[in-house]
Specification:
single chain, TIM Barrel, 3 domains, 17-stranded mixed sheet, 7-stranded mixed sheet, 11 helices, 37 strands, 20% helix, globular, Pol/histidinol_Pase-like
């Protein structure tokens, strides 16, 4: 079953002590680990219908109503039970088809409590108290042995029983592959099965999965679906088996490639992965190495970061390994830092050789409660220690209006990015992330139009210690990735960092994309004269793509095709940039987002002058105005030093204005 763990050396004592502390918190407080600042949505992360509920709450903002809408009025799906507390305190239970399992198995059952009572109550589910506000909803996830299927429920004098599993005879399943892969084994009701000892995970489509090269384990006798995948570069395969009682079914998988970028020197990485971040399971670096191997991912950065309080998860891993590789060879792992400010944005940095003094700002109840210093200081500190300052998950929305980026007060979007990029403090932007890639493209293109050159990268922000969501948080690492062109250099963190710094990148959540402009690829800078023509070729490989597009400065779509190859002759009039992008809908290899890929640009200077689009500069100036207004209205500053602390942010904004005004005046 081992696949990746053998690449990980012994852990330093501080890391072992930290993980032991996480286990104590997990045992004492449950999957939230006692995190006082845990967002309410995260408290429902184990809910199997989290995806539909998440969509509903995004539309209404009413979480109890969203849960009710996701459940509907009929029978719930298998593995879910609904307990309704009536106005008089009575309990009513409805369940869907019971999930099958042999005696001794542990099957998770979501017990959702809906209250129609006029006051707040506490309902006990299998011995676990579930507080439920009047008209609200609560959740308990109970692990049930099919040999004892009933889960007792009580509220005051009222009693009820939940039966959502049934006992069936046991069988065995043996799976194997020549390489580590992602396996999903489900019974006829959709229940997941896997080997003991591996963390149970569900992706954004609510498909259970785990990673191994080979495994053998108990399953219920009867029909089983086995889905095998290995990241973006390999074809997904679906098989069915039906072991009888006491029988062993065998599945052997031979991987087939969709594409092989490494053959041309392109290596894929995920720069934003959380190892431990509260959740269901405390993980070790070996777990991340196994998942990375099972996704065929070349590089992974495990970022330390706080969730909202003072605890910085995996800080000890960063402090004891900064400047070194956690493992190396055909796969590389490194530790990093996500500096988090929930008003100004989150920043991480590949290549850190040391740890900054300030790890987060703006979180109440910590040693850094103020939105000070500005993120510009964080970017500078990360770069001073060798890191590539990168703004994470920049935009929630499609960003059809600049005001959308600054409307809600604290949404972890990249509010200060426009300012810090103008000051030369930003090396890269997550163009593929857990948020809206369309909005990220809008923002990034505006920066490119102003002659700025942050590289396009990808960071999934997955929480490896989470079994379920929210959203794509429990997806496997590398479901979105940045490919960096290392050429003939061997795979190392330093070589990957250098390629990203040079802009030699392609980002994708599924298809593989190439770009050639007069023989040059992403990151290249060409010097041309007015009247010259550029020969452009772009290709895309992979499913789900509807449009292949050639983007240029000023929002120009220079060419477009529904096919897999695009050729164009582009005339040169002034400085510009050219990049290819692929857009589409759903595809089985893309988890939780519309199909999307984008190359880094080829920059075209004319007479040594960079591109300058006045309209985009004015857009950025409007963003700076909104940033200053947001900081003034919503910023948390020390009352005794408010003028100076706010003044530091205003100074960053004003210096950035000078850069964009120069472009706007051309």
């Amino acid at each position: 079953m081992c696949c990746g763990e053998d690449a990980v050396l012994g852990l330093p004592a501080p890391v072992l002590e930290a993980m032991a502390g996480y286990r104590r918190m997990r045992d004492a407080h449950g999957w939230g680990w006692g995190e006082a600042a845990l967002p309410d949505l995260f408290r429902w992360a184990r809910f199997s219908l989290l995806g539909p509920a998440f969509d509903a709450v995004a539309a209404t903002g009413d979480w109890p109503a969203a849960v009710r809408a996701a459940l509907g009025d009929g029978d719930p799906p298998a593995g879910v039970a609904v307990v309704t507390l009536g106005p008089g305190g009575d309990l009513a239970v409805r369940t869907g088809p019971p999930r099958p399992g042999p005696a001794g198995a542990s099957l998770p059952v979501d017990v959702v409590v809906l209250s129609d009572a006029p006051d707040d109550r506490t309902v006990t589910v299998g011995g676990t108290p579930v507080p439920v506000a009047a008209g609200g909803a609560g959740l308990a996830v109970v692990d049930v042995d099919p040999a004892s299927p009933e889960v007792p429920v009580a509220c005051g004098a009222a009693r009820a029983g939940v039966v959502a599993v049934r006992e069936v005879p046991a069988a065995r399943l043996r799976v194997s592959a020549p390489v580590c892969a992602r396996w999903s084994v489900t019974d006829a009701t959709g229940g997941g099965w896997g080997p003991p000892g591996l963390p149970a995970k569900w992706d954004a489509t609510h498909r259970p999965y785990w990673h191994a090269r080979e495994a053998e384990f108990d399953v219920p006798a009867g029909p089983l679906e086995v889905v095998v995948a290995r990241g973006l570069e390999y074809r997904r395969t679906t098989l069915t088996v039906q072991p009888g009682p006491g029988e062993t079914a065998e599945v052997t998988w031979e991987p087939r490639r969709r594409f092989d970028p490494a053959a041309a020197g392109w290596y894929g990485g995920d720069l934003h992965v959380h190892l431990n971040y509260s959740g269901d399971t405390v993980l070790e670096p070996a777990d991340a190495a196994r998942m990375q191997a099972g996704e065929g991912l070349h590089l992974v950065q495990l970022v330390a970061g706080n969730l909202g309080g003072a605890l910085v998860y995996d800080r000890e891993l960063l402090e004891t390994t900064a400047g070194t590789e956690l493992w190396s060879g055909d796969r590389v792992g490194v530790a990093g830092l996500e500096h988090r400010n929930d008003l100004l944005g989150h920043v991480h940095a590949l290549g850190l050789a040391g740890v900054p003094e300030v790890l987060h700002t703006g979180h109440e109840g910590t040693a850094a409660p103020w939105d000070w210093p500005p993120n510009a200081a964080a970017c500078a500190a990360l770069r001073d220690r060798g890191g590539l300052a990168t703004y994470a998950h920049p935009v929630y929305s499609a960003l059809t209006d600049v005001a959308q980026l600054y409307a809600p007060a604290r949404t972890v979007e990249a509010r200060e990015l426009v300012a810090d990029a103008a000051l030369g403090l930003v090396d890269a932007v997550e163009v593929v992330s857990c948020f809206d890639d369309r909005g990220a493209v809008v923002l990034w293109h505006r920066l490119l139009d102003c002659g700025l050159r942050p590289a396009a990268v990808a960071g999934t922000d997955v929480f490896l210690s989470f079994a379920h969501g929210p959203g794509v948080a429990s997806n496997p690492p590398g479901w979105g990735r940045v490919y960096a062109h290392l050429g003939d250099e061997p795979l190392t963190a330093a070589a990957f960092r250098s390629a990203v710094a040079a802009g030699r990148t392609v980002v994708t959540n599924g298809p593989w994309l190439t770009l050639d402009v007069d023989g040059a690829g992403p990151g290249a800078v060409l010097d041309r004269s007015p009247g010259d023509r550029l020969a452009v070729r772009a290709t895309v490989t992979g499913g789900g793509v509807d449009r292949l597009v050639l983007h240029g400065a000023g929002g120009a779509v220079l060419a477009e095709t529904p096919g897999t190859e695009l050729r164009a002759q582009v005339p040169v009039a002034a400085g510009t940039w050219l990049a290819a992008a692929a857009y589409g809908g759903d595809d089985e290899h893309t988890l939780g987002a519309p199909v999307f890929a984008h190359t880094g640009p080829v920059f075209v200077d004319v007479g040594g002058r960079r591109v300058a689009v006045p309209a985009s500069a004015r857009w950025c100036l409007a963003a700076l105005d909104a940033l200053e207004a947001l900081g003034t209205a919503e910023g948390r500053f020390d009352p005794a030093r408010r003028e100076a602390q706010l003044g530091a942010l205003v100074d960053v904004v004003e210096r950035a204005r000078a850069v964009y005004r120069e472009v706007a005046d051309r």
